[in-house]
Amino acid sequence: MALEIPSEYGYVIITGVASIFLTTYLGFQVGGYRKKSGVTYPYMYATKEEAEKDRSKFIFNCYQRAHQNTLEVLPPFLFTLAVGGLKHPIIASVAGGTWILGRLVYAKGYQTGEPEKRSRGAFSYLGVLALLGTTISTS
After folding, report:
1. Sign of CA dihedral 41, 46, 49, 55
2. Does residue 33 contact residue 51 with C-beta atoms inside 8 Å?
3. Cα atoms in the Cβ-side hemisphere of radius 13 Å centred on 136
4. Which burial class, exposed, middle or buried, applies to 20 when counting CB atoms under 10 A from its CB (0-12, 13-18, 19+)?
5. Of 87, 108, 100, whose CA–CA distance to 126 is shortest?
6. d(C-alpha 138, C-alpha 88), whole Å
7. Which residues are listed as membrane-spanning (predicted)?
8. CA 20 to 30 Å from 132, out of 34, 51, 54, 63?
9. CA distance 36 to 69
10. How confident is the model at residue 4 (pLDDT cuts 50, 70, 90)?
11. Distance between CA atoms of 100 and 98, rounded to whole angstroms?
12. Which H/E stretch holds residue 57?
């Protein structure tokens, strides 16, 4: 049995490309704040001692962590977007857009220097649940 890719699958592709823009944007933010805080390469984070003494180093860690966490959850997002979109391209694209927007809000909250504000982006899980549903339905 051959699987036909729906004509609306282009929306899924655009959503996947939008996730690349998201991670690139967050990466540029990390790079900019790296310079501002003085955390040099090759170090991923300021040490706990440095971050406790220098607020800009603490905030750099928040920028870095928001970006890193987004990269950590990107592979399952892309998998469920691609597979769920085979049968449900519009739903998958809307769910993917919800996830992207939620991750942006998550990052902005984290970058305030008050990590608990990252929970403002928790609505991204609605996108995750919808993508899991479309993926299960496709399978």
Report:
1. positive
2. no
3. 6
4. exposed
5. 100
6. 8
7. 9-28, 77-101, 122-138
8. 63
9. 21
10. confident
11. 5
12. helix 55-87
